[in-house]
Amino acid sequence: MRTPICGTALLIATLVAVGCSGSEGGTLRPSERAAIADSLKHLVTNTYDLSKPDAVARMMSLYPAEGPVISANSGRATTTRAALQSQVETFWQYVGSNMRSPRWEWTSMNFDVLSPNAAVMTATYQVPHLNAHNMPHTISGAWTAVFVNRGGRWVVIQEHLSDTPPQVAAPAQADTSAHQH
Questions:
Q1: What is the pLDDT of residues 130-175, one digit of tens each?
Q2: What percent of the chain has pLDDT over 70?
Q3: How far apart are CA 11 and CA 46, in angstroms?
Q4: What secondary structure letter does DSSP report for 79?
Q5: Which of 19, 30, 53, 78 is deepest in the core (most CB within 10 A)?
Q6: What is the pLDDT of residues 74-106, one digit of tens each?
Q7: Rounded Cα–Cα distance for residues 37 and 58 (Å)
Q8: What is the pTM (predicted TM-score) of this model?
Q9: Torsion sign (Cα): 74, 131, 82, 160
Q10: Under 8 Å CB-to-CB from 112, ≥6 apart: which residues?
């Protein structure tokens, strides 16, 4: 499962975003920052709408077609779009395709708009669904993504994802299944 950035990695991601943003950065009005954050929230929410077809293609649409894409998750880091796409395809083949009636729910979504062309999002999510045995199950985690605006299109150039540890997720799963009876 792909899942976000913490500590030193977040600082590095932020510095990368600032470096990519150019010098026109620091004078955004609060309304402009809010508009960019709202636009990114809408983009991410629509991309992860699991009721729509072609989940892998939609997820990959968040990344640039060219150039490096840094993605850290599950104790590994990749630096190319092709490697990231392979991970997303593998996740969807072995996990996503086995979920029945999945709903991607964003439990928090925080944006730091650094400039007109750079922003960082840290979000948490859960995906309640029925597993292959029709039993309630939930996967969850956190995701930090550095977005840049390239040619009028917001794309993720660096991300870090982390799964919720099983010992933390288990009580939430028990609560979720208890409410579904």
A1: 999 999 999 999 999 999 999 999 999 999 999 998 877 655 444 4
A2: 78
A3: 28
A4: -
A5: 78
A6: 889 999 999 999 999 999 999 999 999 999 999
A7: 20
A8: 0.79
A9: negative
A10: 14, 119, 120
Helix (H) or strand (E) holding 159: strand 153-163
Q: Whole-angstrom Cα distance, residue 143 to residue 74?
A: 12
Indicate the residue type of 75: G
Handedness of CA 71, 145, 82, 139 (dihedral sign): positive
- Mean pLDDT for the chain? 85
The answer to whether 6 and 106 have CB atoms below 8 angstroms apart is no
- Which residue shows structure tokens 């977040």? 10
Tokens of 5: 């950035």
CA distance 51 to 31: 32
The encoded tokens of residue 35 equal: 């508009």
Q: How many CB atoms lie within 10 A of CB 126?
A: 19
CA triple 2-82-166, angle to 5 deg: 10
Which CA distances in Å does 109 have to 44, 137, 142, 179?
10, 22, 10, 25
H-helix or E-strand spanning residue 150:
strand 136-150
